[in-house]
Hints:
27% of the residues lie in helices and 36% in strands. The chain has helices spanning 8-11, 19-27, 33-36, 82-96, 112-120, and strands at residues 39-44, 51-61, 66-73, 102-108, 124-135, 138-148. The chain is α+β, with helices and mostly antiparallel strands and 151 residues long. The protein is built from five helices and six strands. It starts with 7 loop residues before the first helix and ends with a strand. It has a six-stranded mixed β-sheet. The protein is globular.
Amino acid sequence: MENDPAVWGVSDMLVPISRYTLRQYLEHASADFQEVRQLRLVLCRQDTQAAVGTVDVFDYSPLHQRASVGITVLGQHRRQGYGRAALDLLVLYAHQVLQLHQMYCTIAVTNRASIRLFKAAGFKKIGVRREWLRTPSGWQDVVEMQHLLVN
């Protein structure tokens, strides 16, 4: 998925990642969240264990107890509930285990499905960043969303 040009626009990628770099990352993937300040998870089907997407928690701030979240579901698995189930579990995990106070995300205004997904999981729109993403067709605005993880 990291080397899929279709998602580079929202993942800040400009070139493919080498197998060596991916292996190096995986060797250190067991490092503590507090240390590396990110968490990368693979979404899998329960029946076949086949990968259907990823969830990333990143830009973690220990002082402010917040982190950003991103989710990608492979095209053939979209609109089947995987994203919603993963996001619901992640919100609980972030609050109960990671002890975050809030999570936030940045979504292209044209990505209506993702905006609906995050809204359904309790995220609220807090603003719009103008011309935030550079795309082949020009600059694109993004929606900022936030979820306060309170009892």
